[in-house]
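The instructor's notes for this session suggest beginning with a concrete chain rather than abstract definitions. Hand out the sequence below and ask the class to guess, before any prediction is shown, which regions might be ordered.
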Amino acid sequence: GAKLLLHGLCSNTTVRSLDLKGNNLRTVGAEALGKLLRQNKSIRSLILEWNSLGVWEEGFSFFCQGLGANNVLQRLDLRNNQINHQGAAELAMALRQNTSLQELDLRWNNIGLLGGRALLNCLHSNRTLKRLELAGNNVPSDILKAVEQAMDHNQDRQTILNETQNRMSVLSKEVLSLKDEKTKQFLDLMDTIDKQREEIARSGRMSAARVTQLQEALDEQHSIMNSLKAKLQMTEAALALSEQKVHGLGELLNATKQEQTSMAERHFAELQQQKQEGADREGKLLRDLSAATDKNLLLRNQVDELEKKCKVQQDQLFQVKQDLTNTTAELKLRAVQAEERLETEKRRFKQSLEDMESLRLKEVDHMAQKIEASERSMQDRIQRLEAIRIALEEELSQVKAAALTERGQAEEELMKVRSQARLEEQQRLEHLEEKLRLMTESRDEAQNCCLKQKEMVADAQAKANQLSLHADGLRRRLEQLQQDLNSKEEEKVTEVNKVKVELQEQIGHLQAERTAQEGLREKIAALERQLKALSSNHREALLDKESEISMLLEKLRMKEADISRMREEEAQRASFLQNAIMTYVQGSPLGTFSSRK
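After discussion, reveal the predicted structure:
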């Protein structure tokens, strides 16, 4: 029945305690118990009191082999089982192999001196047994004391191991919490860097939009300049028409002079008056010509002022571009500094992990892979930002090239207009000189033909009046053109003021962005300070824990020294006991009888 019961319990996983005292188990039962101890992994307590297992040596040796192979049993009761010194030796061999038994009760057996020594010797290799009862076994008191000291030493060692395990668990939890905190801080830093990059991209977009607006304003100003040039061309055409009319009048005067040669004698006095009137008219024409030249000079001055304004606006654009380049450079420097800080923090973090967790290389490799992935993502993002920056620089270079081409075209047009104006002035001066020469010739001829041309003079006077009226109309047109130019200049001034206001607003936005960036810098500095404080605290905690571990190691060394000293004392005691026994045996009558034989 015991064999069947124990055979059924071999595959059981729920029974924790088994009590079989007083069942008179024999060899078959002892063998079944050995098999049970080999196969069962759930029984923690086994009570075998009053079973006389020590009588059957083969069965008890098989039981001891099963006990040596078991790593689950914690309490074993073998009281009153008639175990002798041989059975104690078998138990000592099993206890050297066993690593789970904590309590062993061997009271009221026949272990004796040899069995006690065997058990005491096995305790040097067994460090899990906390309690060993040997009362009622004829074991000497010194061996019992040595066994008690070994048990105390095992208990102290177990408590120290438990404390170290608890501390290691606490340390591992703290390390995990620090890892989590550092990963959170790293993720927060990554989020802040992403936000800063998004803000930088937004500012770049805003600056690009502003540049496009300024380009549109420049295009509008160029269109205004083209319209002014067209109006100047119209006025020049009108002046050319007036000059053609004056030339026609000169031809008519020459014809009248040829006809007046016959009438010169009769109308000499009238010719003198006509000479005075012609001189007055010539003065008036010269005055008109001087006024026209003054107006041309004013128009040229206005064109020069417009060119200066264009140059000022181009300088402002150049300053804005320089500000953009400066901001991009500052942002690059900030990104490089942030990357360097991240790299330094990563190095510190890796060093602390390598110092703390040399036993957990797998986790460190995993974290390193994650950090490499994050670095790759950061490098990808930096490459994207650099590509965006290169695109913006290309756009700026294109805008600069377009502005330079437009400026060159405008300068070429101005040079052409100036050259044309100079040529026209030279032609006008030559024409006037020719007219003056012809007038002098006509005066000489008119002295001979004054009498014949009184009627023609009257017609010429009427035509001159018509020409004066036409000249007045031209003057009015010129005044209207001047008014239009003044109104356009006022519109340009208002537009320039608007552009200045927009530039001031942009400068205010840029200053606000700079203040925001300074706030972000302060936040980054605060985060770095927090990280430094956390790293310092972490290092202090590590130093404290290392000091505690060193103290514990020193205590272990002291206890091992005590154990070695106790072993030496026990060995000396054992040698003394052997010598005493040998002397006692030699001095007894049995010893003398054996010596005589």
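Then share the key points. The longest strand covers residues 17-19. The domain at 1-139 is CATH 3.80.10.10 (Leucine-rich repeat, LRR (right-handed beta-alpha superhelix)).
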